Amino acid sequence: MENRTCCNHQLxxxxxxxxxxxxxxxxxxxxxxxxxxxxDKACNLVRNDSAGAISTFEGTTRNTFxxxxxxxxxxxxxxxxxxxxxxxxxxxxxxxYHILGTCMHHRIGKVDVGQTSVIIAVSSAHRAxxxxxxxxxxxxxxxxxxxxxxxxxxxxxxxxxxxxxxDLDAHQPISH
Length: 176
Hints:
The chain is of the alpha+beta class. The protein has 3 helices and 11 strands, in the order βββαβββαβββαββ. The chain has helices at 39-46, 79-96, 127-144; strands at residues 3-6, 9-12, 28-33, 53-60, 64-65, 68-77, 101-107, 109-112, 116-124, 147-153, 158-161. Strands 5, 6, 8, 10 and 11 form a 5-stranded antiparallel β-sheet that branches. It has a 4-stranded mixed β-sheet with strand order 3-7-9-4, sandwiched between helices. Helix 2 (79-96) packs antiparallel against helix 3. It is elongated, with a radius of gyration of 18 Å.
């Protein structure tokens, strides 16, 4: 049997490593909820004995924006489209990076200062893939998912916020 390498591992001919599979609900987790988010739960969902790395992003509500005091954020989402689009994004991430599992949890409703609004977790055999995939996934979420944020300020004003433009083409695959 002829061997080939992938991620510095020797693999038998015809073997496709777990991290090359298509996006699916067994390895790729999606949740939009009004409940408090848990980084530990997200990490446990992507934990895998083949993983040498779990990388995360945790977005929280900060107390200021452009010099004004923020009271809280409020999120809304069109969940069916968000879920469909998320799995497309995950498939793109799997084409760029060797990843084992992904998790995206996002809050809707009121999110007070200091609370978590979004968690991204990725497991991979190697840290570079996990870190790069998290960056790609959070940027893609911001650009493509139908999730909207309203900032409520201490002066009584509020505004629905539009995300800054992000160049998703800047995310390059990692060569192994």
